[in-house]
Amino acid sequence: MGERARKALRLDKILFIPTNIPPHKARPSAGAKDRLSMARLAAQDLPRWEISDMELRRRGKTYTKDTIRQLKKIYPNDELYWIVGSDAITSMPWAWKGGYDILDECQFVVAHRPGYSLHRVKKSVLKKILVLERTFKRDVSSTMIRSVIQLKKNPARFLDSRVLTYIKKKKLYETSA
Fold first, then answer.
1. Which residue did the predictor score with more confidence, 28 or 71?
2. Would you call 169 exposed, middle or buried from its count of C-beta atoms within 10 A (0-12, 13-18, 19+)?
3. Exposed (0-12), middle (13-18) or buried (19+): which is 101, by Cβ within 10 Å?
């Protein structure tokens, strides 16, 4: 999703930011250090990708609003884009801290995900987002990958080989959280 957005929008780089403790989900089943390591492995061959630990350095739950404001201080002269799947934007603004206000902080870019129609998104939100053309042939999510691993099936077609090796070595996701 990120690389597709980078190419479509001709972005200089993608800053991938693993979250510390997401406010809307249970605690991640892999620890922060493991998720950061996997992100770094996945981005090794993507020269325009940078992995940031800015949210992991914060204590407690992390909010998009706070991260965007921090990024605006770090990159004051750059145009910022926040890339999410349509599954994430369907809960905007009521489930997001800062609600509508964060839509004015930077440009939100939404990639379609099967099963998450943008018809459910408020019109006031739709007016403020960019929607990428549909190009996904199949839906791949972290939830789906964890399920495949827990079922003792092979997730190789969904993951970078280095990430899969890391997951196996650390025995991540083998049991449900």
1. 71
2. exposed
3. exposed
DSSP H helices in the chain = 2-9, 32-42, 64-74, 86-89, 123-126, 142-150, 161-170
Show the tokens assigned to 102: 């964060």
Both structure tokens of 103 = 């839509």
Backbone angles phi, psi at 116, to 5 degrees: -125, 85
Per-residue DSSP letter, 154: -
CATH no. of 2-137: 3.40.50.620
Write the CB contacts of 116 (distance below 8 Å, at least 6 apart in sequence): 85, 86, 87, 90
Q: For residue range 53-70, list pLDDT tens digits in order.
A: 999 999 888 899 999 999
